[in-house]
Amino acid sequence: MFHWRSFVNKFRNTLIDMTKIQIISVFIIGLAVALIAFSGKDYSSYSTFKKADGDRDVKVAVALALEEEIYYEPMEDPNLFSFYAIDEDGEKMKVLYAGAKPQDFERSESIVLTGKVSEGVFEASDMLLKCPSKYTDEEIKIKGEQS
Amino acid sequence: MQEIQYLGEHLVIGKIGHLAVITGFVFSFLAAFAYFKQVNNNDQSWHKLARFSFSLHSVMVFLVMALLFVIMINRYYEFNYAFKNVNDDLPFRYIFSAFWADQEGSFLLWMFWHAVLGLIILFQKGKWEAPVLSVLSIVQFFMFSMLMGVYIGFGEYSFKLGSNPFILLRETMNAPIFNNADYLSLIEGNGLNPLLQNYWMTIHPPVTFLGFASLTIPFAFSIAGLWTRQHKDFLKYVISWATFSGGILGTGILMGGAWAYEALSFGGYWAWDPVENMSLVPWLMLVAGIHINLIARKTGKSIKSVYSFYVIAFILITYSTFLTRSGVLGETSVHAFTTMGLENQMLIMILFFVFGSFWLFRIRRKDFKTDNTEDNLSAKEFWMFVGALVLAFSALMITLSTSLPVYNKIRAFFQPSFIGTVIDDPVDYYNKYQLWVAVFIGLLSGVGQYLRWKESRFEKYLKKFSVSMGVSILGATILTLLFGAWMDMQAWQYWVLLFASFYTVAANLDYMIRLSKLNPRAVASSLSHVGFGIMVIGSLASGLNKFHISSNPFAQRGLLSEERLAKNVMLFKNMPMFMSGYKVTYADDYFEGNNRIYDIKFEQLDSMGQPVDSFTLHPTALYNNTVTKVAAFNPSTLHTLSKDIFTYIASIPQIEADVEIARQREDSMDYAAINLMEDKTAFFRDTVIVGDSTVIRSYELNLMEVIDEPTHPDYTAQEGEISFTPKISVFDTYYDSTYIVEPTVTIRGQAVYSYNVHLQDLSLKFKVKEDALRYAIVMEEDLDYKTYEFGMGQELDLEGHSIKFTGFVPNPESVDYIPEEGDEALWARFLIDGKKEVKPIVCIRGNNFLTFKSIDKSNGLHLKPLRINLTEGGKDATLLMSIAKEIKSEKMVIPIGVAHAPRTDFVVLESIVFPGINLFWIGSIVMLIGLFIGVWNHRLRKQVS
After folding, report:
1. Which of B505, B572, B692, B824 is deepest in the core (most CB within 10 A)?
2. pLDDT category of residue B280 using cuts at 50, 70 and 90
3. C-alpha span between B610 and B916 (Å, rounded)
4. Could you report the per-residue pLDDT of B786-812, keeping only the tens digit for each?
5. pLDDT tens-digit series, residues A11-46
6. What is residue B368's DSSP assignment?
7. With 70 as the cut, is the pLDDT of residue B338 above it?
8. B228 near A CB under 8 A
9. Which residues on B lie below 8 Å from A45 (Cβ)?
């Protein structure tokens, strides 16, 4: 049989007996969880080009469209790099990035872009490249083949 | 199918290695069991077996490591580990880096340190040896299980335990090459990622893994303390191990930051990358635990909290390694290994220790009576505990945020349509919260020093306390205002943080010097806090006030709608650019091994444009082993007292970065055909597209002469070749400037080599065509040789030229003459028309007289020595020469090619100034010194007590 009153008493006594330190500890854990849970605007879901036309930066996971132009002419502008990317919905869009073309860019398996769409073009403030891992390579290079 | 007998495999070493793993696995369990029995039954007869088992398991760890090293050093590619991580060209010093670059090797490194630390405890023969090593052995047992590579079956169901480091390549995959018995002679390993081929990869992992391994010891002590109920004694012994671990792990983390700053391109030392975060989090809990440990020793209270913090710190390490090795971090981290498939095993290990610890806490809960005495807010221990809680808060926040990918995975499991969430801007996000953590730590670590343990008469102490507070607040305020004048603080929160940091510096220095008179215990804690404060100040200075020298004023041209910071600038060779108060010049580039080093010269200018400082930085492009393609770019940083200047090459022309592309470009280059004739000007028109318009530039080409020795930088003379080099003047009609180019074409055997000249300034490329070689090939039979005798210094007029024999010159060198021992060889030096030098060679080899003729190509003169005549008495010598002049039947028509070739003599550079960054390094080092002084203090105290 559940003794309601003694349960309440026990709970109240625990609270009264809690030292300041214990109260602070509980508060800290609660604060941490609350800050994380309610800081919604610091997070974004992986988005698509269609949903990226708001004010905030979003993250879009894309694949590189190799058949389209990949443009980087440092003599024209060393801080302008453009290429075409395809998002998870299959939509293809031009991407502009204010920086240099990363080494081995064409070999990226997938890219996570951070930015937003503006006038039909995705302006990326950041790019994270995922390159194919050497270790999952099913081929074994034959010595001497590389020259 | 017939069993294939493979050639050249060294299977025995792999079998021994695997056996060693299994032996270690068995004996680590036996050690745990034997120590357990010894403690539980208070039975010393188990002691010998326990020590033997532990020692043997340690030997197995060392043996496995040694065998794996042997396999890697000898490039036994039949073993998967060697195939994945080593190749033929890997320099020996990077074999260590390669060893722990991969999963199995890094596990072994960790277990190695466990074994070493365990053996130290074993040899100390203390009363804690048994319980502590029992726990440590269990940890090793779990780790050995990660390396077993053994199949365990229950009826139909079987699973694989661990991954054998000695597995053969052909056991990991099915490829047609393994049908060949001699496959080993055909394959080469993958080698080590070029970014890991540096000295940091040799030193950072061992230190960091020692940090991880040493964290197991306080954990083992905690379990041991709870188990044997020696709570007071536990506090005394664990503190020195905990502070040692804090110092080493802190050093390892700092090294990681230093490596990132020195060698990586993002321009910083901390990126809040998940792997970085998860090595920091256990350290934070450990430091918190150390503080509570000190409290418990002084007051006898909070012992349960000491246990909790050390246990949680260890659990966090196991969680950290799970995140790093399981592949769940995937796209969110640049550090993470590719998965080894051991996620389940690691989860089981974590759960075992979590539930095991919980259970132990529960059965021992009666040892810890709840203390209902009021918390004394004027007592040191209260605020120290608050400080520990702040550190725990920080650790909790970082862990939760970093575990977002885990949350995504779990939620997606239950809700398949869930698309993962990700943190927008990690740096902003973490800094936002951790800033306040740092503020609290700064304030608490300052004020806390002025409070006293178990304070009972604070009213009496209040005056002294107020004086101290006054001194430290005044000091901090002055320093903050001074510093804030030098740096741009940008926001009020940073002012608060700056003050808190200066506060702990001021308060701790005051406490250490004035109040404690440099007592060693005070020095340890004060230095740590001062170091922390300086570290934060350095972080503020270099973070808030960093700026790009390389901001390009002509960026974007309105193509991007927002103001995005332009980070890069393009530099043409030898053309200085002025930016942000600096004159920057790309001066030179050259190869050292497969590193291409760029000399970038900086001159800092004052407001009048006069140089006040100058230095050269050397960022590099690291090419792959065959020097055909760029693998990575490495930065170069100037370190001065007040700032660092970080320079990094963001991009170089594609044809410089990739030999393949250079080849393709050259093959597709459109050369216009032009015939050059003596005394006749040829014209070339170049059509250039500049922006939206087209520009036509005209050039006048003239053949000046044919020169003897090619001047092309890529050309090296070889025996038996014939080459032709016209000297061509190029006159740019637009700028009225003249350039000289000397392209070469060479035939060696059957192959023709073309050394083309790229005139960067005009974006033109010149080549001389193969047909021109007919002017270089003159048949000996067609030449009409006549004999002449030359005395020393004699000049003769022959064939329309004045030819003077000036004498013999020793030590001749020529492509055709290969010196042998015992040779007596000389150049015979001739001067043609008073200016042109021709030097045929004479050589006495044994009984033979050898001669090598020399050709003056521009005048068409062939000089062949015949004999040296000695006069009577041997004093004077005359030289008998055979000389012929080529007859030019026709005027030369030299076919050349001219093409438009955009210039490639540039680099794209990023350059950042980090003011005050030295404070960050100095601060961190001071903090670690404080920790190590603490280790020293505790050891001394233990010996005394």
Report:
1. B505
2. very high
3. 25
4. 899 888 888 888 878 899 999 889 888
5. 777 777 677 888 888 888 999 888 888 877 777 777
6. S
7. no
8. no
9. 419-422
* pLDDT bucket at B565, cuts 50 / 70 / 90: low
Mean pLDDT over B658-673 rounds to 89
Cβ–Cβ contact B622 with A under 8 A? no
* Helix or strand run (H / E) with residue B30: helix B11-40
Alpha-carbon gap: B184 to the closest alpha carbon of chain A (Å): 10
The alpha carbon of residue B424 is apart from the nearest alpha carbon of chain A, in Å, by: 5
Phi, psi angles (nearest 5°) of residue B620:
-130, 160
Torsion over CA: B607, B608, B610, B616 (sign): positive
User: Beta strands of B446-594 (E only): which ranges?
Assistant: 547-548, 568-572, 577-579, 582-592
Residues from chain A that touch B631, judged by Cβ atoms under 8 A, are 103
Cβ-defined contacts of B345-353 (< 8 Å, 24+)? B345/B145, B345/B146, B345/B161, B345/B162, B346/B146, B346/B318, B346/B321, B346/B322, B347/B322, B349/B142, B349/B318, B350/B315, B350/B318, B350/B319, B350/B322, B352/B142, B353/B314, B353/B315, B353/B318
Task: Identify which of A36, A98, A139 has the shortest CB distance to residue B564.
Answer: A98
User: Considering only CB atoms, which chain A residues are within 8 Å of B397?
Assistant: 32, 35-36
Spatial separation of the C-alpha atoms in residues B188 and B629, rounded to whole Å: 19
> Is B275 in contact with B336 (CB distance < 8 Å)?
yes
Of the candidates B864, B861, B866, B869, the one whose C-alpha atom is nearest the C-alpha of residue B886 is B861
Mutate to test the interface with B, among A13, A16, A42, A116 (most CBs of B within 10 A): A42
Per-range mean pLDDT, top range of B645-659, B708-722, B803-817: B645-659
Residue of B180, B568, B579, B629 to mutate, testing the A interface (most A Cβ within 10 Å of its Cβ): B568
B375 with A75: Cβ contact below 8 A: no
Contact B566 A19 (CB under 8 A): no
CA distance B449 to B519: 13
B723 closest CA partner among B700, B751, B704: B751
Residues 140-199 of B with CB under 8 A from A: 173, 175, 177, 185-188, 190, 193
DSSP symbols for B177-203: GGGSTTGGGTB------GGG-SHHHHH
Minimal Cβ distance to B389: which of A24, A44, A46: A24
Give which of B639, B655, B576, B569 is closest to B609, Cα–Cα.
B576
pLDDT above 90 for B248: yes
CB-CB neighbours of A97 under 10 Å = 23
Give the model confidence (pLDDT) of A68-79 as tens digits.
889 988 877 888
Cβ atoms of residues B806 and B829 within 8 Å: yes
Tell me the residues of chain B between 72 and 101 that have a Cβ less than 8 Å away from chain A: 84
Higher pLDDT, B870 or B840: B840
Strands A58-64 and A81-86: antiparallel
Would you say the pTM of this structure is higher than 0.90? no
For B610, residues 6+ apart whose C-beta sits below 8 A from its C-beta are: none
Which residues of chain A lie closer than 8 angstroms to B554, CB-CB?
77
Check CB contact under 8 Å for A141 and B566. no
Specify the range with the lowest mean pLDDT, choosing from B165-169, B263-267, B392-396, B832-836: B263-267
Which one of B420, B422, B651 has the shortest CB-CB distance to A100? B651
Select the residue from B265, B309, B376, B397 to test the A interface by mutation, using most A Cβ atoms within 10 A.
B397
Residue A141: pLDDT over 60 = no
- The yes-or-no verdict on residue B680 having pLDDT over 60 is yes
At B336 the pLDDT is: 58
Q: What three-state secondary structure class fits B133?
A: helix
Which pLDDT tens digit goes with each residue over B507-523? 999 999 999 999 999 99
Is a pLDDT exceeding 90 seen at residue B744? yes
Q: What is the pLDDT of residue B563?
A: 47
